[in-house]
Amino acid sequence: MRVFLLLLLLARLQAATISGVVMVQPGKRASDAVVHLFASDGQLLTGLCDNDGSFVIKDVPKGTHLLQAHFLGLYFPEVCA
Fold it and tell me: What is the distance, to the nearest Å, from the Cα of residue 67 to the centroid of all Cα atoms in its chain?
């Protein structure tokens, strides 16, 4: 049991948090948008925007990932970071 907890702790230390704001147009934020992060290790992580258009995705593994935002049928350009 101790080994498992230690591995879990080490895995958490290597994860990061990504946050941002989804904009529909300059000065207008997209409340209730959905943000998907396709991690390089195959995970799909999802964040929901608050009323101010901000989102937070936690426990993001290291690597280069694809980020997509969706809002009422609109698709924003993908971001690879």
Answer: 7
